[in-house]
Amino acid sequence: MTTTTWITDIALILIVFRQLREGPLTPKSYLLPLGIVTFVGFSYLDTVPTGGNDLVLIGALMGVGAALGIGGGVFTWMRRADGHVLIKAGFVSAALWVIGMGARLGFQLWVDHGGAADIARFSVDHRITGAQAWVAALVLMALTEVVTRLATIFLRSRRQAPAQQSAAAAQTAVAARRSA
Question: In terms of CB atoms within 10 Å, which end of the chain has fewer, N or C?
Answer without folding.
Answer: C
